[in-house]
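user: Please review this fold.
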Amino acid sequence: MQKISLEEELKGNAYPGRGIVIGLTEDGTKAVTAYFIMGRSSNSRNRVFVTEGEGIRTEAFDPAKLEDPSLIIYAPVRVLGNRTIVTNGDQTDTVYDGLDGELTFEQALRTREFEPDGPNFTPRISGVLHIANGRFDYSMSILKSADGDADSCSRYTFSYENPKLGEGRFIHTYARNEEPLPSFEGEPKRVGIRGDIDSFTDMVWNSLNEDNKVSLFVRFIDIATGKYETRIINKNSQE
């Protein structure tokens, strides 16, 4: 698979929906993850990321305008020991509980499928970063409707050991901004990881469509120590 520019990929898609990036810095010292949310409806746009423990959760920016919280209020990021879980829904809790109960990432997600929001049937995308003994590996998953069929779930898990320096993988919910929204297709995209946490965060945020972007979370984890730095940007807090 050819490596592509994450910046160009984001700028070229007005509505990738929700996205997860996982990878390794150019010097090999830090594991990287980013998660962003976008929205086209007022309900989806009425959100911010807030910290919760070692992770984050979404909450309504204006509680009075919150309509249906079922698919937009959840904890996208949770930490279980040396694992960092990142997802686009409440399957974060499913993965957390499964790993805590000694299930594999894939086994935990066997209990879930795509979101019940036809005709889009938004895929559930998930990732888990694992850091132990100075080594880093990660896995990503997508659960999606088979060509818009509400009764058929396609499940894909991708695992990456010994990640290459300055590279990562990018998976997102929607392939294009169409009606109904088509699901992501294929293996997570191979993208470059450049710069420190601030320059990387700025690049991702500034590359997302101005009208549709809502919130961004970025974390750099030191592979030797497990210590991390986090950045959160909320469009609603800036306006």
Summary: The chain has a mean pLDDT of 97. The two ends are 39 Å apart (CA to CA).
